[in-house]
Request: fold
Amino acid sequence: MDLARRSVEVILAGQSPSGAYVASPTFGPYRYCWFRDGAFIADAMSRAGEVESAERFFDWCAGVVRARPEGPWDARYNLDGTPDTSDWPHHQLDGLGLWVWAAQAHCERHGRASRWDDAVAATVAYLRAHWRDSCVDWWEEREGLHVATVGSIWAATRDDAARALVTDRYEHERLDGSHAFLVALGLAPVEHLERIERRLGYHRHADDVYYGGGRWIILAGFTGWARLLHGLDPAPQLEWIEAHAREDGELPEQVPPLLHPEHYDRWTEKWHTPAQPLLWSHAMYLTLKTVAAA
Ligand code: BGC
Reply:
């Protein structure tokens, strides 16, 4: 099975006519489009040459932004771009930086003209004013100022103060798998990645109890990508992800062993088994595979 090809297929099947990427088509609480997941998915599709798919997602983002040009915007929306009124930690700023980052990189990569300049400018203006605001983290668990969030915002604004905050704080914050992206962005050194690999492997953080706290496919992807940028071999991460694809080539969100297995049942009682396929998992495989082949 060609997992990169299959990943493109799964992602295209999960893109709605509006351009939104569903986080997971089969997992009820994830039948929405997140700026964060979507940005990494679009970035992966752009890298894989799926220009139209990526651009349809940026159209969707721009539509959400234009509907409320002063902001604020939520972490996730219904697939048709209307607000999600369910109870969810909506205040997350990282994804706003990430969609801009992905759209700009896409235009540069493919020499494409941007048709989202107004929405990009509105998003960046908002982020420049609010980048230090407390908000919910990548894992939607904690309110505060988080380096992965500020790094994601920096990717769009390139603001020196945001960079300085990340470089000053990454070592003092709870060690977190999301920091691997900071290494990929060049905001944290390879020593930090080594720390993550040694102490967390592909777990999100040591206290993770969500579905018992498994190992996340996306984090193997981020780790491999950051390794590659530092001249380290990403083969272990590629092979690990491939080994965790199901027979039909679908990638789940997370896999055992669990850090806190006593918490698993309470989640399955609530929401059944963990998300699969997770489009973001497929995206991070695709990104790693593409970057490794370049
Ligand atoms: C993760 C988020 C992600 C969402 C949808 C959550 O469990 O913590 O980072 O955006 O799932 O995939």
User: Anything to note?
Assistant: Residues 23, 30, 34, 36-37, 138-140, 280 surround beta-D-glucopyranose (CB under 6 Å).
